[in-house]
Amino acid sequence: MRPLLLSTLLLALSCPAFSQGWDLDSQGGVLGAPVTFSIEGDANRPYLLLFDLAEQSTPLPGGQAALGIGVRFLGLAAGLPGFVGSLDAQGQRTIPALLPNDARLDGVRLSFQAVALDVLDTVSNLVRVVGMPAETARPTLDALDVPITGNGAMVTLADGRTLILPALSPVAHLFDPRLEEMTSLPLPCPIPLLASATPLPDGRVFIAGGLGVDGQPTDAAIVLDPSVPSCTGFQMSIARAGHAASVTGNGEVLITGGFEILDTTGILQLFAGLRASSELFDPITETFRAGGSMLEPKALHTATTNGAGDVVVAGGLTLIPIVNVPFVSNTAYLWDTASDGFSFIPQVFNTGRMLHSAAALDNGRVLLAGGVNIDFTAFLNSGDPADLAVASVNSGEEWRTNIFGGTFTHVAGLQIARALPAVIALPGGEALVAGGLEITLKGDLSEVTINPRGEIDLYGSQSFRVTGGLTVPRATPFGRVLDNDGVLILGGGGSTADLYRR
Fold it and tell me: For the chain, N or C: smaller number of CB within 10 Å?
C-alpha cells in the first residue's frame, strides 16, 4: 500500500490552480514537546498529512488540486503514526506528534498540509511550525510593515487571526498565527493618547476618551466594528484621559476616573483635574448611564475584571480624601456587578503604583505588576518640583476575592523595576510580565534613567521567576495568547513582533 501511495503522489502532471477545501490547524512548537494537528474536512475521507521545508506549487495527479509545499519528506510523513488515516463521521481528526528535541531544528520552519487521498482533489490550508526551545521568545516569521511605537489592543477574530490595534496609529495589523504573517490595513478610528481600548464580547472594540487634537481630555467614545470595518461615535458624560475601562460580568463597560482637565502649569494644578466618578456603556443598547464614585479620584490606574465578573480598580495617581494630599495610590475599589456599585472601603496593598499593568488570571484572581511610584514628601514641604523622586516598581500584587470583598498578597521578585510591562495571563493561574520602561527620575534631573527593557518574568503560585527574554527591549509592549498556544508580544518600538512559547 505504501509504495503505491508514494508512487502515486510523486507523479506530477500539469500545474492546475491551487485548491483548498479542508481546514488544518496546529498547536505547539517547543522542541521535545507535543505538537497537535487538527483536520476538518469531509466525513470519513482518507487523508495524508505532509510536511516539507520548501513552499512551492506541487500539482497532484488528476489535475484537480495542487499542494503549496514540496514532497521530499513524503515517505517519512507516510510512516509517522496518525499522518495517514481517515476523518471521522464528523469530518474531523486530531493527530498528536512529537517535535524532536534536536538543536538542529531550532528556528527551522516546517510547512504542513493535508490532502484527501481517495480522489486527490482536495488539500488543506498551509500551516507553519517553527521549532524553538521552551520558555524562549523569537521573532515572528513576518515583521510589521509599520512600526508600533506604543501599546494598543488585540482582538481574536472568529477565524483565529488576531487584529492588532496600535495606539496613535492610522494603521492596524492582522496576524495569522498559522502562517505567522502580518498584514497591514487602514485603521478608520485611531486610538488617541491616554485613551482606553476595550475589546467587547461580540468582537467589537470600545475606544473611550484620551487626548483630543487640542491636547485636552475628550468626552468622545467610539465603537469600532472590525468586521465592516466601521466606527460609530458616542459621547461620555465628561471628558476623560488616563482613565481605565473593563467589561463587567453583565457585559457593560465600566469607565473609571481619569483626568477631566489636564493643567500642566503646576503639580497641584495637575491633580485638580483628577476625577473619582464612573460611568457604564451598554454595547447592546449603545447607551451610557452614570456609575458610582470612588472615595478618591484616580488616573493612570488599572481596571480588571475578575473571575466573578466584578472589576478591581487599583492604584493610580490620586489625592488622599478630605485632606487632598497627592500621592500614588496603594488602594483598590471593587465594582460589584450584582449590587451595581463600588465597595465603600478600599482594599490596601503594599506598594503604591501608577502606570502599572494588570491581568485577570484564569483562577479568578487579578495580578498587578510593575508601575511607577512617586515620593511627594520633600515636595509637599518645599513646593519645589525638584524634590520629587520618581522610580519604577519591581514587585506585584495579587488580588483574590474573600467574604469581605477581596485582599491583596504582595509579590516581590521582578528581575528589574519597570513601568507599563505587558502582563499576559496564561493557563493554570500563571502570567508573563514582559518588557516595560525602567524609570528613575529626580525632579532636579540629577538622576535620570529611562530605558526600555527586554526581560520576561513568569508568574505563578504567588512568585516570579526568570524566563527567556524578548528579542528586543520594548518600552510599552502588549500581548495576547494565540489559539496555537503561542504568546504574541509586540509594540513599544520597532517593526518586529515576538512569539513566546512555554
Answer: N
